[in-house]
Amino acid sequence: MPGEIPSDERVTRSDLGALWAKMYEEQVRLREELRRLEEEQKRGERGARDHEHEHEREHDREHAQEHEPAHARAHERGHRFAKARAWATTHRRATAAVGVALVVVVLAVALFVRWMHSFESTDDAQIDGDISSIGARVAGTVAHVYVEDNQYVTAGQLLVELDPTDYRLAVEQAEANVAQAEAQAKAQEPSVPITKTTNATTIATTGGDVTTSAAELAAAQRDDESAAARLAQSEAQNKLAQTERERAKRLVASGSLPPQELDRANAAADAAAAELASAQAAVQAAQAHIAQQRARVEQASTKAEEAQKTAPEQLAVTRATVASRQAQAKIARAMLERAKLDLGYTQIRAPVAGVVGRKGVNVGDRVQQGQQLLALVQIDHQWVTANFKETQLARMAPGQRARVSVDAYGVTYDAVVDSLPGASGAKYSLFPPENATGNYVKVVQRLPVRLRLLEGQPGLERLRPGMSAEPKVFLP
């Protein structure tokens, strides 16, 4: 049927072209029909004029004959009715054609309005994709460059290689440090049980010294008691000997005793005095020995207390020393791993598959850590960023179907609305607008809507970020 629009809601540009083609064909056909009807109308008008002239002549004859006014009026009405009937007869097909044309035009306008409200489109859109900046993780001199601009690379492919000599030497030095630190830690490990044994031995020895010193003090005290008893005995004997000598002196002086007895009394008194002096010396020696043994006991007790007190501390210090050696060994191993990583970083590989672009590195260049060397465009994951006006988002929602026409190839791809933006594009700009200051002019804002291209479509691999596109989102 001419002017019919496909029933599918997703009316495309080709469907609109077919509709206009059908309408054009219908217009041509109607023009030909109108020309044919105009020719018939002209022939009918000529016949109607002849008939009218004939009727007028007949009427004039009748009027001349009768001269009656009522009959004239009736004749005039009949003449008009006959004239209208003749015009309707000659213009019937033209009237029908005009009616059909009006219906077609109204239907086309209605369908066109409905089609215009079934989608939202914009020419402010482009293909987008992830662009990775590949940089150096360590400083060095570029030894090899294995890629060129616009070259496709796979994930893990070697891109650039730096001179690894310095980093290889750093690995060897780190390995030597690890060996030294592990040897020191291993040598220090037995010190903990050795310290435990030494502390136990010291505690036992000092405890034995305390016991021995106490026993010796007790013996010295017993010797002192014995010396004191001897001193008391010597004092008594000396006192008796001195008394006997005095008595002997008086008796000899009186002549009661012979002088020999006085000599024996003097000798006995001197011996008793000497014995007393010896006993006193023995007592002093015993007391000095007691004092010495007490000092030894105190010294042994102090050593025992110190051994008891310092043993845990010495063990803790030893354990801390062992832990420190082990920590140094761990640090050395970490430094070795870091040196190995730095050596591995001299080979710069592609983190993902993509196309190389903006290469700015050559053999012999001196690069610094973090310096960008090239860009990698991930063409395997691309989408469309469509900047729709805010007035076009009223019925737009994620999941709606869309068609995207790419200007570069003239190809249309199927897509869906992936997500709506969180803010307008102006809010993400470097200098967002401040409507609270200055003169305010209302401007329709644009918001970047993300469209996801459906996978499996031919030609997706030819798309590149930045290509202009014209998306069309079909609304419910």
Keywords:
18% strand; alpha+beta; disordered N terminus; 3 domains; Elongation Factor Tu (Ef-tu), domain 3; 476 residues; Helix Hairpins; 4-stranded antiparallel beta sheet; 13 strands
Compose a concise summary of this entry.
The protein contains 6 helices and 13 strands.
Task: Indicate the percent of residues in helices.
Answer: 55-70%
Query: What is CATH's topology name of the largest domain?
Result: Helix Hairpins
The CATH superfamily label of the largest domain reads Helix Hairpins
How large is the count of helical segments? 6
CATH class wording of the largest domain: Mainly Alpha
Using only C-alpha atoms, the radius of gyration works out to 65 Å
Strand-and-helix sequence, N→C?
HHHEEEEEHHHEEEEEEEE
The total beta strand count reads 13
- Average predicted local confidence, pLDDT: 79
- Regions with little confidence, pLDDT below 50 for 5+ residues: 1-12
Distance between the termini: 26 Å
| Structural classification | alpha+beta
Give the count of structural domains: 3
Which architecture name of the largest domain does CATH use?
Orthogonal Bundle
Basic shape: rod-shaped
Q: What percentage of the residues does DSSP assign to strands (E)?
A: 15-25%
Largest sheet: 6 strands, antiparallel, barrel
Enumerate the strands of the largest sheet in spatial order, edge to edge or round the barrel.
2-9-12-11-10-13
